[in-house]
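Section 5: illustrative case.
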C-alpha cells in the first residue's frame, strides 16, 4: 500500500467517524437517541473549571483596565507582547503632569510663592508616577501573568481534553445504537466488539479529563497567592502616594492662602480691607491650623513709614543681590519703601538688608 492509498483510506475513515458523530449528536438534540451521562463528580469538576475560566478572564481584563486605562496603550502592549518585543517606555500621566508643573514653576520663578509651590507639586507628581510604574510592573509579573498563563495554557489543555471526551462519548453512544439495530449474529458480534473498544476509550479519556480538572483546586490556591501579591503591591503603592502627599502638604502648609499673584494682580480670594478685620488682630488662621499674616496688616505696613518685626514662615533663597535670603522661623525687621512692588517689603537682619517677599512673612505685634 503506497502513501497515497493510506491517506485516502485515513480520510475516508475520518469522514465516516465525523459523520457518525454528527448523526449521533443531531439525534440526541432531537430526542431520538440516548445519551451517556457523565458521573456527577466529573460534571461538577467541569462546571468548576468553566466558572474559573470565565471569572479569571473578567478579573484579568478589568485589572488591565485598572492598571492601564488607555485602550490604545493596552493594544500596543499586546502587539509588542505577541511579537515578543519590549514595548517602548512612555511617560505616564502623573509624570507628565509633574513635568508641566515643574516647567511652569521654573518659568514663573522658583523664588515666587506660586512658582515654588508648582515645582514642589510637580516633583511629588513625578514620584507618584514612578510608584505607579512600579505598581504596574509588579502586578503584571505577580498577578496578571499567572492568570493569563491559566487562560492560555492550563485551560486550553482542559478544553482540548474535554472536546476529546465529548467525541469519545459520541462514539460510544453511536456504537450502542448500532448494537441495538444489529440483527444478524455476525453483525451483532462486530457491534459488541466495537462497543467494548469505544467504552474503554471513553473511560480512559474520562479519567484523563478528571485528573486535569482536579488540578483546578491547585489553580485556585496559586491564584490566591497571586492575589495576596497584588494586594501587597497596591498597599505599597497607596502608602507611598499617601506619604508623598503628606510630605507635600507639610511643605505647602506654610503657604498663605491669600497673597498677591506674581503679575501684581490680586488672587481669586479677595483681600479684605483694614476696616473688616478685628482691631489689633495680626494674623489669620488657615484650614491647616497654621497662623498666617493678615493682608490688612500688610497693607497698613505698606502705607506707614515705620518698621515692624516679622517671623519668616519658610526658607527663601535670594534670586539676586537686591534680595535678602531668609531662614524659616527667624525674626527680621521689615519696612516699606515708596514705589516698591506690592509683593515685596524691605527686610533687615543686622547689617544685611534686601527685598523680601510678603508671602513668606508673619507680622508680629
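Designed sequence:
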Amino acid at each position: 500500500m503506497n502513501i497515497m492509498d493510506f491517506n485516502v483510506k485515513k480520510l475516508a475513515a475520518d469522514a465516516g467517524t465525523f459523520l457518525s458523530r454528527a448523526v449521533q449528536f443531531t439525534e440526541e438534540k432531537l430526542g431520538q437517541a440516548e445519551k451517556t451521562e457523565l458521573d456527577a463528580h466529573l460534571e461538577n469538576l467541569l462546571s468548576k473549571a468553566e466558572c474559573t475560566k470565565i471569572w479569571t478572564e473578567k478579573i484579568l481584563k478589568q485589572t488591565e483596565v485598572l492598571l492601564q486605562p488607555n485602550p490604545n496603550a493596552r493594544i500596543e502592549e499586546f502587539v509588542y507582547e505577541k511579537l515578543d518585543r519590549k514595548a517602548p517606555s512612555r511617560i505616564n500621566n502623573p509624570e507628565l503632569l509633574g513635568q508641566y508643573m515643574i516647567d511652569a514653576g521654573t518659568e514663573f520663578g522658583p523664588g515666587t510663592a506660586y512658582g515654588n509651590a508648582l515645582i514642589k507639586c510637580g516633583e511629588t507628581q513625578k514620584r507618584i508616577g514612578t510608584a505607579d510604574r512600579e505598581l504596574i510592573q509588579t502586578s503584571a509579573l505577580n498577578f496578571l501573568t499567572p492568570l493569563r498563563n491559566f487562560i492560555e495554557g492550563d485551560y486550553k489543555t482542559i478544553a482540548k481534553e474535554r472536546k476529546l471526551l465529548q467525541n469519545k462519548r459520541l462514539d460510544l453512544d453511536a456504537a450502542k445504537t448500532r448494537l441495538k439495530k444489529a440483527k444478524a449474529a455476525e453483525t451483532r458480534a462486530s457491534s459488541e466488539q466495537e462497543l467494548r473498544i469505544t467504552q474503554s476509550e471513553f473511560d480512559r479519556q474520562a479519567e484523563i479529563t478528571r485528573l486535569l480538572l482536579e488540578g483546578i483546586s491547585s489553580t485556585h490556591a496559586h491564584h490566591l497567592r497571586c492575589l495576596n501579591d497584588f494586594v501587597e503591591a497596591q498597599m505599597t503603592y497607596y502608602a507611598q502616594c499617601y506619604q508623598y502627599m503628606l510630605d507635600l502638604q507639610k511643605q505647602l502648609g506654610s503657604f498663605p492662602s491669600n497673597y498677591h499673584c506674581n503679575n501684581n494682580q490680586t488672587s481669586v480670594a479677595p483681600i479684605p480691607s483694614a476696616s473688616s478685620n478685628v482691631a489689633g488682630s495680626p494674623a489669620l488662621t488657615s484650614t491647616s491650623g497654621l497662623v498666617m499674616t493678615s493682608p490688612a496688616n500688610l497693607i497698613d505696613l505698606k502705607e506707614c513709614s515705620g518698621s515692624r518685626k516679622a517671623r519668616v514662615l519658610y526658607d527663601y533663597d535670594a534670586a539676586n543681590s537686591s534680595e535678602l535670603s531668609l531662614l524659616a522661623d527667624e525674626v527680621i525687621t521689615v519696612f516699606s519703601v515708596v514705589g516698591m512692588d506690592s509683593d515685596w517689603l524691605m527686610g533687615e537682619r543686622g547689617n544685611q538688608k534686601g527685598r523680601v517677599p510678603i508671602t513668606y512673612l508673619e507680622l508680629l505685634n
